[in-house]
Amino acid sequence: MRLWHYELIPYLPKSQLLAQWRELNSIFTKQDKHILINYIYDYPKNDLFIFSQMVMSEMTKRGYKVNTTNFKNYFINSKDYRYSLWFDYISCKKPFQNHHNKRYLRQCFYNLQEKYDRGQKDFSQEQYDLLKSFFTGRFYGVFKEV
Known about the structure:
Distance between the termini: 27 Å
Radius of gyration: 16 Å
Number of helices: 6
């Protein structure tokens, strides 16, 4: 279970994007604990809300139908829901700031790079080139093929 670095959401192959939504729904329904996501519980719910909005937006952009029932139940029907969540989404688009840092971005990139290198079927050369271009630009041209 992993929440990909928020900046990589637009570059995720279909498998990872859809799996991301499944993982979020698991959090919404069971409030799962897992070593790779436990950090989210140290943040305000707003961060998960923002992250979820980013994933839903990307899914919609790609033409996927998004079932928001669990999302709505978790946020809107929860007793600690605050209307400020909507304002926070608009004003702050960097969720999990202490965890989704440059180090985590590199870790996620290399994880995706390995999936590409191992021949993940829905990870095209074009998608990988876009991901690599983003990563190279983000780290000021420092990209070395090994």
